[in-house]
Specification:
Elements lengths: L1 H59 L9 H14 L7 E5 L3 E2 L4 E2 L5 H7 L4 E2 L3 E2 L5 E10 L5 E10 L5 H7 L7 E6 L4 E5 L16 H7 L5 E5 L5 E9 L4 E8 H4 L1 H47 L15 H28 L9 H18 L3 E9 L1 H8 L1 H16 L7 E4 L4 E6 L6 H17 L16 E9 L5 H17 L5 E4 L6
Parallel strand pairs: 16-17
Antiparallel strand pairs: 1-7, 2-3, 4-6, 5-6, 6-7, 8-9, 8-12, 10-11, 11-12, 13-15, 13-16, 14-15
Amino acid sequence: MGLLMAIVGTAASYFQLSRFLRQDLTKSVALQQTALAAYVARNVDNYLGERLSFLERLATHLPPERLSQPEALHAWLQERSTLSPVFPLGLRVIGLDGKGLDGTGQMVTDGPEFAGARAGQPALGRAQATPSGNSVLPMAVPVRNAAGQVIAMLLGTADLSADGLLDHLQRARVGQDGGILVVSPRDHLFVASTDVTMSLTSTPPEGVNLLHDRAMKGFRGSGTTRNARGIDEISAIASVPNSGWFVVARVPVAQALAPVGRMQTFILEQRAPAVITVLVVIGLIMAWLLRPLLRAADQADRMTRGELALAPLRVVRDDEIGHLTQAFNRLLAKLLDNQEALARLAHHDTLTGLPNRKLLDDRLQQALVRARRHSHQVAVLYLDLDGFKNLNDTFGHEAGDRALGEIARRLQGLVRQTDTVARIGGDEFVLLAADFDGAAEQGALALARRCIDAIAQPLEQLAQPAQSPAVIGVSIGIALGTGGETPQDLLAAADKAMYRAKQGGRGSYAMTPAPTPA
């Protein structure tokens, strides 16, 4: 009980405090990440809003007559760009057909910024890298005539690297491996990232990061997810309204919840001495209490391995262990009784109680060994009852069983205690006689004649009133062995001799020489 209380107390503290601290830290980090994502999203939105607003104001004040004067238009744009250097890569005015109205030549205008400007809306293009390695973002606004019709597009390209936006993201790193992502759902692109290797790369396919998939469909909030690199993260998502982008502030769960591990270590270090002390005390007490049980278990184990004979265990004291030992002794006694019954059942015929074929084979093997050692002979008499089937049909199977029992008793009365009478089939018996004092052949023949005479006696117990007693006969095959044969060879030889006896006239016997050993 003390051990259980110590373990349960330590485990409860460990798991409950770990669970509470994990949930509390996760919630706290999620709020922190949400605030960070919103802060960065506002900065990015302000950055884009300022530049789009500048382009819109510039487009409003653009003199319409300059649209047909490339050099004058170019000079006008250069002057504005110098006065307000929000587009250090320059400004351009593009006709709806893609021709540069400022004399800069034809352009490919299939980007989203041109599509938006043609439709009369300020629009952002797809962020891309320059040959120098800087990240740039094109954006365009419509240029309208006095009637409000879109007649051209004013294009400006922001240098995200030179403007310090990416440096700002680098400073927004949270923890050792946390950081910021700016994502364009329309382009499936990481516009910017604290991890510079991810900037201007494609977003992961659907199904890799479930929280990212939800964000691409419009979800804004926080949650725990596993990123494309297989790292669990706490992430928060905030929108950038001017662009349709969103910002992700993320930090690995392992780093965010590092205090949980330190707390767990603290609990284990504080509780370990107390638990060890309790374990030592309980161990000493249990060793004293269980010593008799362990001794009894060792003795029982040695019994199962055959090192000790099956015997009752000593009852040391009158307690639970003593009661268990007594119960084991009772079970052992019952087991021994059952083993004896099973052994008898396995080696004896259930009807007559005589040895069966298995026990006969064992005794015949022993007799052959003795015969070979002492130069004696072994006689095997194979008996098959004559007319037993007719008796069964006439008097019934129960009467036949009684007849077999009577035949077994008569045969047992004819042999010595050292001989064996076995039943090996329905109406087949075998007599094993060994250690003959005189000629084995004469002794075996005399035994066969006594068997025929004994079995030929009427079976009085089967007779019904006013009926004559039943009578059956027997055919006997005799085989002699000197010890060099196998039990199977000797039985087969006696069996063949028995069939010769039946063929020569029932109620007789025949002898065959023992088979020559191979």
